[in-house]
Amino acid sequence: MPQIYKVLTFILAFTGCLSLLLTGETKVFMSLTVIGIFPGYYRFLKGEPQAPKWVIGGLSVLTLLVFFLDSFSISSDYFLAVSHLTLAFQAIKSFDLKEPWDHLQVYFMSLLQLIIASELSHSIAFGVIFVLFLVALVSAIILAHFIKEGTILRVNIKKPMVVISTFTVLITIAFFVSVPRISGGIWGKGHVKSIRTVGFSERVNFGSFGDIKLDPTVVMRVEMSGNAIQPYYWRGMSLDFFDGISWSVTFERKERILKEDGQFRLRAFNKGEAAVQHIFLEPMDTDVIFGLSEIAAIEAEGMSLFRDRTGSLFIPAKKGKQFHYVAYSVPDTQPVGGDMHKYLRLPFESGRISALAHEVVGRQVKNFAKAARIESFLRNNYTYSLSVSNPPPRVSAIEDFLFNSKKGYCEHYATAMVLMLRALGIPSRVVTGFSGGELNNYGGYIIVRESDAHSWVEAAIDNKWMRFDPTPSVPVERPSSLSLFVDALKMNWDRYVVAFSISDQKEIARVFSLPFRLPQMPEMRPKLFSPIIFLSVPAILVMMVIFLIRLRFARHNFFTAQYMKVRNLVGRKGIRITDSTTAAEVVKEAVHLGVNGKIREFVAIYEEHRFGGREVSAEDKMKYKRLTKEIGKQIN
Questions:
Q1: What is the DSSP string of 445-468?
Q2: Are 343 and 428 contacting, i.e. CB atoms less than 8 angstroms apart?
Q3: Which distant-in-sequence residues (6+ apart) come within 8 Å of 596 by Cβ?
Q4: Residue 584: CB partners within 8 Å, gap ≥ 6?
């Protein structure tokens, strides 16, 4: 067996295992079995004897027992258990590669591993591994064919490898582009690990933002168009009740909004005046939808969107998976409605907080001026810090922030301002989401990270909810140009591969149909367009057939290809020719067609080079071509 064929088998096994390991979802302890492929394939490449049958059988039985234990106890996930099983199988099989069927088992298992990995990860690394696997698989199949034909040492296989591999990749791309889009995973649920979002649920513990403010993990990428609403505040949840320890939502009822014409419409708006956000969310453990205030419409998969009475939006279809949607936002907010007394409740009576609020606003009469005074006071007199110590006994965290430590992060500032506003009789609430983000000039989009998680204040002033942010600005360290370039690659992968949708298919179809859009009157176009399509489709099919025919002969060496042409000519005269028909039988049948001498000389040369191992010269090729033409003329 040629060494290159053995190497390709190792590459296929390695790419399959690597695709699973790079997902980061497999258990480390259960994945250690994959190490076995290295000594196994080392022995295989060196031509050393394979393991005895009783060893392979015993390890296989042990692996199955561990698989059942893994499914119900260790991982408690059948999907991950199958992943671990394939890793163990590849390791065992590397010591048992004796028959051609064994190699096919490796190929099949590697393909299964890639399918599993596609559910566990949407990384661009998976795309690179898939292309490597595809090229290696095609090359291995081509090699197997020439090994079976016995011509591996006499044929230049580089050309068919390159041509067929390129053709396979193009067909794969065409299939990906044209196949109907489906939502959801193969197994009906997302297996990609979700980002933990402690600040975006219906109950948020005070101080929870301190952990995620240090996390640089990307949570979403946003392509902006239209009238951008700056500064960027990506609104998530709004919370009305604070008990001194945590914030929560007391409005239990949620309104269900159904999709109409592919859009969840929340209010009337002028599409030309809206800020359009194409948002690509990473898998998150929340169904909250983020966007610039105020969101007027959403375009997304799923049939239902829910809105609570605070204006927060939820799409159950997005939870736990990568999600793309389009948000249309307008700068003006709708009038305040509903019960306002909930936005005036205080967790405890604090004369100190009330006195401080009245002292800060002074003689201001209008509520907007009062809120602006408190916002400015907190911004200019307190220090932003993530290192916050616990308050003294019997002192609330907010009182400790306002009167003792005077340092904290966004939750401290937002909570303090809401309590001060409520002490003045101004309805207000805390809003959680993300603020800002960094512009990636390589892709022209905004990167929003966990460290951009933020909380701010909305106050009911002049019958509208107005935003205030009392947290002082903090200098942000810019990432390197290289990291931004890599992120741009990931964004394009997510946009045009992971999130490739029906609308993208329609856009591709529209672009390719442009040459056929003749500048005629509308009523004339259908009559002209139909014949063009009618003629172009068969032409494309004919070109593909010709290419495949040429490809079929190109995979054989020169003498075999010429012999097959002659054999096919004989078959066209009504003589039954099959793949199992021998050269002697072809000569016997051709004699009846009057090509006795020529066909015998032709087959003699073919057999000398095909089976006798005779060196091919330019003179031999010329003579062989001449005989082929002469036989063709005599038969026709």
A1: EEEEEGGGEEEEEEEEETTEEEEE
A2: yes
A3: 590
A4: 603
The C-alpha atoms of residue 434 and residue 454 are separated, in whole angstroms, by: 5
Directed axis angle between helix 100-120 and helix 3-21, to 10°?
A: 20
Say how far apart CA 604 and CA 609 lie, in whole Å: 9
Strand-strand pairing, 407-408 and 383-384: parallel
CB distance 450 to 195 below 8 Å: yes
Measured CA to CA, the distance from residue 192 to residue 284 in angstroms comes to 10
Q: What does the alpha-carbon distance between residue 357 and residue 143 come to, in Å, rounded to a whole number? A: 81
Contact 82, 116 (CB under 8 A): yes
Tokens of 325: 């949607």
Write the burial class of residue 323 (CB in 10 Å: 0-12 exposed, 13-18 middle, 19+ buried): buried
Q: How far apart are CA 316 and CA 308, in angstroms?
A: 14
pLDDT at 24: 83
Phi-psi region of 549 (alpha: psi -120 to 50; beta: other; left: phi over 0): alpha
Q: Rg (Cα) of the chain, in Å, rounded? A: 35
Q: Do 294 and 334 contact (CB within 8 A), yes or no?
A: yes
- Specify whether the backbone of 366 is left (phi greater than 0), alpha (psi in -120 to 50) or beta: beta
Q: Round to whole Å and give the CA distance between 494 and 281.
A: 10
Angstrom distances, CA of residue 107 to CA of 23, 312, 463, 482, 566: 20, 49, 67, 36, 36
Distance from first CA to last CA of the chain, Å, rounded? 43
Per the document, the length of the chain is: 636
Name which of 430, 440, 379 is nearest 408 in CA terms: 379
Q: What pLDDT shows up at residue 582?
A: 73
Count the Cβ atoms, other than its own, within 10 Å of residue 99.
Answer: 9
Amino acid identity at 363: R
Residue 592 class from Cβ within 10 Å (0-12 exposed, 13-18 middle, 19+ buried)? exposed
CB 39 within 8 A of CB 92: no
What are 449's two structure tokens?
Answer: 């990270």
d(CA 628, CA 625): 5
H or E stretch covering 258 = strand 254-258
Do the beta carbons of residue 369 and residue 386 sit within 8 Å?
A: no
pLDDT in tens, 474-505: 877 778 888 888 888 888 887 777 777 666 66
Query: Quick check: 547 and 567 in contact, CB under 8 A?
Result: no
Q: 86-129, pLDDT tens digit by residue?
A: 999 999 999 988 877 788 889 999 999 998 888 887 788 888 89
Question: Tokens in use for 381?
Answer: 């007199």
* CA–CA dist 160, 141 (Å, integer): 11
Query: What's the pLDDT at 544?
Result: 54
| CA distances, 306 to each of 256, 262, 271, 460 (Å) | 5, 16, 22, 23
CB 467 within 8 A of CB 455: no
Cβ of 16: how many Cβ atoms within 10 Å?
Answer: 28
The domain spans of the chain are 3-178, 203-337+427-496, 557-635
CA angle 399, 401, 406 (to 5 degrees): 135
Give the position of tokens 């000389």: 601
All residues at 6 or more sequence positions from 557 whose CB lies less than 8 Å from its CB, including other chains = 151, 154, 155, 610
18: Cβ contacts below 8 Å, ≥ 6 apart: 129
Pairing of strands 218-226, 445-449: antiparallel
- Residues 526-576: pLDDT tens digits? 433 334 443 444 455 455 555 555 544 444 556 677 777 777 777 766 666
Block residue for tokens 């399959």: 16
Beta-bridge partners for 383 = 407
